[in-house]
Amino acid sequence: MGTLNRALVLDVVRRRGPVTRAAVAGATGLTAQTVSNIAARLLSQGLVREDRVLASDPHRVLRIAADARYAVGLHLDPARVVAVLVDLAGTVRATEHVDTGPLRGPVEIVDAMVAVTERLVATPLAEHTAAAPAVRDRLLGIGIAAPGPLDPLHQTLAAPVQLPGWGGLPLADEVRRRTGMPVLLEKDGVAAGLGEAWTTTDTTGLVSVTLGHGISAAVVAGGSVVRGATGNAGEFGGMPVHAHGRWTAVWEACQPLQQVERAIGAGVLPPGIAIDRPAAVRAAYEALCASDAGRSLVAAGGTALGTALAHVVELLDVTDVVIGGSAAIAGGTVFLDAVRAGLTGRLPEGSRVAVETTTHGEAAVARGAACAVLATALDAAPAVPTTPVPATVPGARVRSPRARSIAHPW
User: Fold this and answer.
1) Rounded distance, CA 69 to CA 56, Å?
2) How far apart are CA 130 and CA 110, in angstroms?
3) Distance between the two ends of the chain, CA-based, in angstroms?
4) Residue 4 belongs to what H/E stretch?
5) Exposure b/e, 124-156, CB count within 10 A at least 16 = b
6) Which of these, 179, 169, 168, lies nearest to 142 by C-alpha position?
7) Is residue 207 within 8 Å of residue 217, measured between CB atoms?
8) What is the distance between the alpha carbons of residues 365 and 385, in angstroms, rounded to a whole number?
9) How many other C-beta atoms are found inside a 10 Å radius of the C-beta of residue 56?
10) How do strand 150-151 and strand 156-157 relate by DSSP bridges?
11) Residues 200-220: pLDDT tens digits?
């Protein structure tokens, strides 16, 4: 109970601060004495700070000590690794991108991930003095977000179709061994949801959608991200939609590879694009989104995603949808407006759902991976995927992540 109460207080201060002790007690249901005792411990640990909003105000408020802890987040995407340094408040303090096109396979990409982590940890931050502890001394760990399916028991990738050759690779162990830091592996869509949940004050009903080279989603309910039995929840790419003149799966309607192939066939993009190279597909898709001739294709993909989301919204009774990922960002307002239209066109009259792009840009997934590390270390929420029950337990059913062929074409 002590650990839970500490997490509750820290969570309220982080989300709503600056906040008075009385307000914390009201938000958590804890007694004023319990809040005071917990606040004293958090102050002594340097996780929160106390001051006055105004010098003349006798009431003191608690606020999160953003620079007290840090985490690194890495988003392993087929075309690019996005790396971020995130503070305790969830603010991205530094970011780097590493294009994977010139790199040869998993070995060189892991080398690049370790190197970029070391650079981020060595980042000089403006508020740190020579006497202050270095970022490395305040670093809680490294979060890695990757396409699913994942094997949460062994913290490895389980044959992701977007990353051939990565299946079974001990990615978390390798990065842990080479950096000396704890490493947490998360599915990319789940990580994006974790990032949105880390700072929002309304987590009663939120769906976070990530459209990059693949597509996935995360549901945030009651402040927690739904991971599923094997940590691989969020694969809704097989949802049937009517798009481009026929019934198809939503992934086929809006993912970059299919859109690029469609654009080549229609003469909107030139032939000869190396569609077997993720970096080339990404560049071609961004060119498609930037062209007037590509607007109709981009809008059709957005409408398809919106109609698919209608089923999710109705099933889960959510009020907010956040869209992110490199492909969604490239689609811009044309894509987002089409998603809204496709969604509202399928909902009952009077239903209102807010659909917005993530405020964290392309760093959203990497930031979410870092937030998962912060949450785990601070006991704010269980961020490590649940380990499957051993089969030796009588009556236990163990589910393993299954390879998927319908959600991603890579």
Assistant:
1) 31
2) 32
3) 46
4) helix 2-16
5) eeeeeeeeeeebeebbbbbbbbbbbbbbbbebb
6) 179
7) yes
8) 17
9) 6
10) antiparallel
11) 766 678 899 999 999 999 998
pLDDT at res. 155: 82
Residue with more model confidence, 8 or 298 = 298
> Residue 369 region, left (φ>0) first, then alpha (ψ -120 to 50), else beta?
alpha
Residue with token string 């980042």: 123
Q: CA 206: distance to chain centroid?
A: 13
Give the residue ranges of DSSP H helices in 81-209: 105-121, 171-179, 188-199
Instruction: For 320-362, give the DSSP string.
Output: EEEEESHHHHHHHHHHHHHHHHHHHTTSPTT---EEEE-TTGG
Distance between CA atoms of 60 and 52, rounded to whole angstroms? 5
Asked if the peptide bond before residue 147 counts as cis, ω within 30 degrees of 0, the response is: no
DSSP for 280-316, written as a single string: HHHHHHHHHHHSGGGHHHHHHHHHHHHHHHHHHHHHH
Q: Are 312 and 278 in contact (CB under 8 A)?
A: no
H or E element in which residue 367 lies = helix 364-377
User: What is the pLDDT confidence band of residue 391, given thresholds at 50, 70 and 90?
Assistant: very low
pLDDT of residue 202: 63
Mean of per-residue pLDDT scores for the chain: 86
Residue 54 binned pLDDT confidence (cut-offs 50, 70, 90): low
Place of tokens 């340094």: 85
Binned at pLDDT 50, 70 and 90, residue 389 comes out as very low
Strands 206-211 and 215-221: antiparallel
